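tl;dr need the bound structure. longer version: we got a ligand (cytidine-5'-diphosphate) that a collaborator sent over and nobodys looked at where it sits. i said id run it. heres the input, straight from their email, havent touched it
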Amino acid sequence: MEKFNIAIDGPAGAGKSTIARLVANALGFVYVDTGAMYRAVTWSILQQGLPLEQTADLIALTERLDIRLEPGEHGQLVFVDGKDVTGMIRSAEVTGNVSRIASIAEIRSILTAKQKELASKKGVVMDGRDIGSHVLPDAELKIFLTASVRVRAERRLKEISGDRPDITLEQLEREIAERDRMDEQREASPLVKAPDAVWMDTTEMTIPEVVDRILELCKTRVSGVN
Ligand code: CDP
Ligand code: CDP
């Protein structure tokens, strides 16, 4: 099959990584989780104890980091300078700080360059916030996935374990809404639906329904696919 790129964007908990991974598996494409890259940078900054207002130091650290994404048995593995940080980048501390770090334009350009490079040979399903609008404006298929904040918080609550056993649905809803607000309102490549992206509200859709719909769009929209 001819290779092409798929961009999947949307707010937190919309199902981007779950859907992107399944679509990539079905097509034999590579899945790239760009949120994991912003999380890896945030984890490294926190780990080194750098003051968050010292932007120049944060940018210098980001430039030095070797971030790698590799397929693992249970999903994508994330390595920073050879260390497996897959679990650590999902901590509440990283989640609470990542949107602030992701609002720094220079950090975005460093990661965007890496993302463009990963997609340069095509055959990539990439998910994030600015993939269709900024990172891969020429992606053959662009999807904007969303769902109500309540449903997204409910989905996230089912996943919560480990470091936040007592979190309530209302707390999660507030945190998700705040992260969406920061991602949508930042100046540097904010979360936005690209004009040519297909809008999909998954509030009442199951995971297989969303995957099938995207695979269908691949057949009808992307030339050379059958
Ligand atoms: O999986 P979840 O929706 O919690 O978020 P994520 O995809 O892991 O992304 C974490 C954060 O990274 C987002 O809230 C954004 O602030 C930032 N991000 C971004 O700015 N641009 C991207 N392409 C991907 C993530
Ligand atoms: O990557 P993003 O933050 O957009 O979302 P995710 O981590 O892929 O999905 C959040 C949770 O919602 C996961 O537990 C998925 O299994 C679940 N999900 C769902 O229940 N129904 C959907 N249509 C999509 C995702």
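gonna send this back to them w/ a short note. The pocket of cytidine-5'-diphosphate (ligand 1) is lined by residues 12-13, 17, 34-35, 38-39, 98-99, 102, 128-131, 179, 183 (CB under 6 Å).
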